[in-house]
UniProtKB/TrEMBL annotation, chain A:
This is DNA-directed RNA polymerase III subunit RPC6. It is found in: Nucleus. It holds the Pfam family RNA_pol_Rpc34. DNA-dependent RNA polymerase catalyzes the transcription of DNA into RNA using the four ribonucleoside triphosphates as substrates. Specific peripheric component of RNA polymerase III which synthesizes small RNAs, such as 5S rRNA and tRNAs. Keywords: DNA-directed RNA polymerase, Nucleus, Transcription. The lineage of its organism: Eukaryota, Fungi, Dikarya, Ascomycota, Pezizomycotina. One of its GO terms (cellular component) is nucleoplasm. Belongs to the eukaryotic RPC34/RPC39 RNA polymerase subunit family. One of its GO terms (biological process) is transcription by RNA polymerase III.
Automatic annotation (TrEMBL), chain B:
Residues 147-156 have a biased composition (Polar residues). Residues 146-168, 244-264, 385-446 are annotated as: Disordered. Component of the RNA polymerase III (Pol III) complex consisting of 17 subunits. This is DNA-directed RNA polymerase III subunit RPC3. DNA-dependent RNA polymerase catalyzes the transcription of DNA into RNA using the four ribonucleoside triphosphates as substrates. Specific core component of RNA polymerase III which synthesizes small RNAs, such as 5S rRNA and tRNAs. One of its GO terms (molecular function) is single-stranded DNA binding. Residues 9-68 form the RNA polymerase III subunit RPC82-related helix-turn-helix domain. Transmembrane segments: none annotated. Belongs to the RNA polymerase beta chain family. GO terms for cellular component: RNA polymerase III complex. It is found in: Nucleus.
Length: 364, 681
């Protein structure tokens, strides 16, 4: 037979050669699938002899350097690194099956139930496999935000994907509401600062020449000023504790003229958050957009067509007031917040004549 | 009005509060049972026909009940008019409007009309004269008493009676008719709208179609004809200022409002003595007048819109807006069009006003120079900004109206206006009241920029007054632009005449008002998260349950809890869409949605209930201190101060009940504002 004519050494040499030739390509594109024709095109197997190729490929497979895959175009091989191959070689058949599934799942991780279903392993075997792999620190458990109850596994060398961790909004798989609120506060402060013209003269000297606004300064200068300004703002708000002072501050916030182009857009806000170094995490423009959308839904800011980016945001005037200051008429009197309002009826179990809430309210 | 249980309850309470128990009993039965004849009514109310007729007479007089005489069966049916009954709750507000605009006399007229339903001009005038005489007699008596008591008079000295009370009354009535707050009345309004419709339909069918119609085309035709007829009928009813030889004391330049204001100011307006001269207008003494609720609602809506503008933009802009709304108020007869009467298919563009008109009408005390932040003192930049905005606006307009958009157009506009302004002092030299304008300095700020613009356009510098006037016009325009640029659409620019013409799309802004009220309610009842979710669903439509936590950045668990809570309250609802025929929970998409219409209906009903509870409680509170209240109602003590005949305990009780009354009625009034937003505006 032709195959027998090649010595073991030859085969080993070809094997090495093929692996060497394939690995740079695989490094470039880890998803690369080598097909039979690709390997033959390397011109390593003499005379494109299929039998020889079969033997060599089998050797590579045995050493776990190759991994057989099927797809729509038929069969092919994927390359494994030498280290990976070593790991694989140390595993039993069951362990290998489990490990390969976890490996394939990549940074998304895989659910234990899926592994069981795919490998058809017995519970105890599966547990021992997992135990073995974990003890070798080849795999580790992970939590996915989308399915917080599922037991997921991932290769130790990888960190979970953004989808699994939920992006910047999640900390340890929990939605970090504190962080989100903080980020919105920062954004709101910036937007509202740019929305209103703070008239210092509105009460006493409204007819005098108003002060210049920083709009004409260079962007860097403005930004610097603003970063400084964010500190004192809080102090200012804390100082005015009287009702009248508050009202005055509210009145002195004047709207910008129609067609004002200086409202900030997403890009500007992203830059501001980035440069401000408020958070350890980086927030992308998309993340900022999400926050802005939510603030729109919260009725604190509003989209306007303005500025260089086309779409910009401005703060709403009523958002300047505290929430408890804008109570609705309906809930003012006891009926609006009455827990038994549906039952209330003259002559019923509760009614206007024996209503305690009314008594309290009227004697207020 | 929806005939929900709570609405009926409220109407009955309102009638009871204003006109007493007999009427309210009849009214309630009519509301609950629909139209009834006297025998049936007698059976349900268990009142004798005699008493019943008595009560019905009152109700008909107040237009709370419609009647319809059927010639075929020779019976008369009575039907309740819940709209009019509800309007009773608004009486206080309407009287207040009349007072603030036209003075105490107007308030008195309107108040009397509320009590009597309708009355003739003759009655009103004679009543007024009689009251004046009585007041005069009282004053004299007081004076005599006061002289006896060391000259200490208790009541403020009333102004001496005007020289010509009848003429004064006539002028005031004309004024009110002109404004539309009251309207002349004909017998037709006692027929319910449905009956009127049927009657006309019957007649039309007989006259124009020979008794029967066939096919959808003829049906439509008939409908259209009836609508036209109804429309004409209504316009006949409306007060027309025909044959008005009335250049109000030769001072018509500023329109009705302006002239009133000036007169009021010149009179000091301290104790509300709006001295109205007799301008020779005489009304038909037998003419019947009544309050025009539809128009009053328009006025109330305008007030509400001004508040909204003040909340969203600022006080000064709101003042400008108020003046603008006043200008078009005259041409807005009602808030909501009736599809049975009005031609809803091809509506003309709403009433418009121009910047120039507004500048003329706006009170001089409004500081138009304030209220908007100055962006930059660099005028070129400001111009650029404004231009950018203008061109953007123009593009929008061009898209809508197919109008050509070019900057030259705008430039031409400016020049034309400048000329117009230059001419004004010549035409109207008396209106040059700028010399004492206390806010001249204010105008000065913008002067440099304006000058630069003028020289740029190669114009000669204009006289100071014109300059000022133009400045003011520009400032006003800035406010108007701000209003038009706002998201809730206070104004819409619809032309370029007179430095820009403006109109108000009431429908859009009313919807905005409703949404805002809904949001406040949601925020109060369901907190920040509920508010966020509901607004999200309103804007984006139906949303998958799985999407919501990601969009709102709220924990899935919290979202579910909140949504369930809101579903219990009927605010949001869920729709299940199974992905396969199995209908298992895991294979089902859950879509949440927020039905605006349903929420406003629920809200409205709960407001009705809220209001009736307040009334009921008020009644109970009153009953508790009945003996004290009875004391104040004794006829022999009516003229005395309660301090004179009550002991301390009774006085305390009286003050307490007065306080309670105040807070309850005040709350009802505020709730009524909500009802107006959701139902009437």
């Amino acid at each position: 037979m032709a195959s027998s004519s090649h010595s073991r050494a030859e085969i080993a040499a070809w094997k090495e050669e093929i692996y060497e030739a394939c690995s740079p390509i695989a490094q470039e594109n880890p998803r690369m699938i080598f097909r039979q024709s690709d390997v033959l095109d390397l011109d390593i197997i003499p005379n494109d002899h299929l039998e020889t190729l079969l033997i060599v490929a089998q050797c590579l497979l045995d050493e776990k350097l190759f991994k057989a895959v099927h797809d729509t175009h038929g069969m092919g091989w994927k390359l494994r690194t030498v280290d990976e191959a070593k790991k694989y070689r140390s595993l039993s058949v069951e362990q290998e099956a489990v490990y390969s599934l976890i490996d394939e799942a990549g940074d998304e991780g895989i659910w234990s139930k899926t592994i069981k279903a795919k490998t058809n392993l017995h519970d105890s075997t599966f547990t021992s496999c997992i135990k073995h792999l974990s003890s070798k620190s080849m795999i580790s458990e992970m939590k996915s935000v989308e399915h917080p109850t599922r037991k997921m596994y991932i290769k130790s060398s990888l960190s979970p994907s953004d989808r699994a961790t939920g992006g910047p909004w999640y900390t340890d798989g929990e939605l970090d509401e504190e962080f989100i609120n903080q980020a919105m506060t920062v954004l709101y402060a910036y937007v509202s600062k740019r929305t209103f013209y703070r008239s210092k003269t509105v009460i006493k000297e409204a007819h005098r020449s108003p002060k210049k606004v920083v709009r004409k300064m260079s962007p860097e200068h403005v930004k610097a000023l603003r970063n400084e300004g964010l500190g004192p703002r809080g102090v200012e708000a804390g100082r005015v504790d009287e009702r009248t002072a508050k009202r005055l501050a509210y009145e002195s916030m004047l709207p910008m003229p129609a067609g004002y182009q200086g409202y900030p857009g997403v890009d500007e806000l992203t830059l501001f958050v980035e440069n401000g170094k408020f958070f350890s995490q980086t927030l992308t423009a998309n993340d900022i957009q999400t926050l802005l959308d939510i603030m729109c839904f919260d009725d604190r800011i509003e989209r306007v067509v303005a500025g260089s980016e086309g779409i910009a945001y401005k703060a709403l005037r009523k958002s300047l007031l505290d929430e408890d200051e804008r109570s609705s008429v309906l809930t003012e009197a006891p009926c609006g917040r009455c827990p038994v309002f549906d039952l209330c009826e003259e002559g019923g179990p509760v009614g206007p004549s024996n209503c305690e809430y009314f008594s309290d309210w009227l004697s207020m | 009005m929806s005939q929900s249980k709570h609405a009926v309850e409220l109407c009955a309470l309102l009638v009871d509060e204003t006109y007493g128990e007999l009427t309210s009993r009849i009214f309630t039965i009519l509301l609950r049972r629909g139209r009834l004849t006297i025998p049936l009514l007698s059976k349900h109310t268990r009142l004798s026909p005699n008493k019943l007729r008595h009560g019905l007479a009152v109700l008909v007089q107040e237009n709370l009940v419609y009647y319809h005489f059927d010639e075929d069966t020779n019976t008369t049916n009575y039907e309740a008019n819940p709209e009019a009954a509800y309007m009773l709750v608004r009486s206080g507000k309407i009287v207040e409007i009349a007072r603030s605009r036209y003075g105490d006399l107007a308030a008195e007229i309107v108040g009397n009309l509320f009590l009597s339903g309708h009355s003739t001009v003759k009655e009103l005038v004679s009543g007024y004269i009689a009251r004046l005489a009585e007041a005069e007699a009282m004053r004299k008596r007081e004076e005599r008493l006061a002289n006896g008591n060391n000259g200490q008079s208790k009541t403020p000295v009333q102004a001496p009676a005007p020289h010509n009370p009848a003429g004064q009354m006539h002028s005031m009535l004309t004024e009110l008719l002109e404004s539309g707050l009251i309207q002349p009345l004909t017998g037709k309004i006692f027929l319910s709208p449905t009956d009127t419709y049927d009657k006309i339909a019957k007649k039309m069918l007989q006259d124009d179609f020979g008794g029967s119609i066939k096919g959808t085309k003829q049906k439509e035709d008939l409908k259209e004809k009836i609508r036209e007829r109804l429309f004409n009928l209504r316009s006949e009813r409306e007060w027309k200022s025909v044959g008005k030889k009335r250049p109000l004391n030769g001072n018509h330049a500023n329109g009705i409002n302006g002239s009133n204001k000036r007169r009021r100011l010149s009179n000091g307006a301290v104790n509300g003595d709006h001295y109205f001269e007799d301008d020779g207008t005489r009304l038909d003494p037998n003419m019947l007048v009544r309050i025009n609720y539809e128009k009053c609602t328009v006025v109330l809506r305008n007030n509400r819109l001004v508040t909204l503008a003040s909340n969203r933009i600022g006080a000064t802009t709101a003042q400008v807006y108020e003046a603008g709304l006043r200008l078009i108020e005259k041409t807005v007869p009602r808030c909501r069009l009736d599809p049975r009467i009005d031609d809803v298919k091809d509506l003309p563009d709403g009433p418009v006003f121009s910047t120039m008109e507004l500048t003329a009408a706006l009170s001089k005390s409004v500081r138009t120079g304030t209220g908007i932040g100055s962006v930059s003192s660099d005028k070129i930049d400001t111009r650029k900004l404004e231009k950018a905005h203008k061109s953007r606006k123009r593009v929008d307009e061009a898209e809508v109206e197919g109008e050509a958009s070019s900057d030259e157009d705008e430039l031409m506009d400016d020049i034309a206006v400048a000329n117009g302004n230059g001419n004004i002092p010549e035409i109207d030299p008396d209106s040059d009241g700028h010399g004492d304008d206390p806010f001249d300095d204010d105008d000065d700020i913008r002067k440099p920029s304006k000058r630069a613009k003028v020289t740029f356009q190669d114009h000669l510098p204009k006289p100071e007054a014109a300059e000022n006037r133009e400045n003011r016009m520009l400032q006003i325009k800035n406010h108007l632009l701000l209003l038009a640029g706002d998201d809730c659409g206070f104004l819409r620019k619809c032309g370029t005449q007179g430095l820009g013409q403006w109109t108000v799309d009431f429908e859009g802004i009313t919807q905005y008002l409703q949404e805002e009220e809904m949001d406040t309610m949601l925020l109060e009842r369901f907190g920040k998260v509920g508010h966020r979710l509901a607004r999200m669903m309103r804007k984006l439509g139906k949303l998958d349950e799985k999407q919501l936590p990601n969009l709102a950045l709220v924990r899935q668990k919290d979202v579910r809890t909140k949504l369930a809570e809101m579903q219990m309250a009927g605010v949001v609802d869920i729709q299940e869409v199974p992905r396969d025929s199995g209908r298992t929970t895991s294979r089902t998409i859950f879509l949440w949605y927020f039905d605006v219409e349903r929420v406003s209906t629920i809200l409205l009903d709960s407001i009705y209930k809220n209001m009736s509870r307040c009334f009921q409680r008020l009644d109970i509170e009153r009953r508790r201190v009945q003996d004290v209240l009875a004391l104040t109602e004794r006829t022999d003590l009516l003229d005395e101060q309660p301090e004179k005949y009550m002991d301390t305990e009774q006085l305390n009780m009286l003050h307490e009940i007065e306080e309670k009354e105040e807070s309850l009625l005040g709350h009802i009034g505020r709730l009524d504002e909500l009802v107006a937003i959701f139902r009437d505006y």
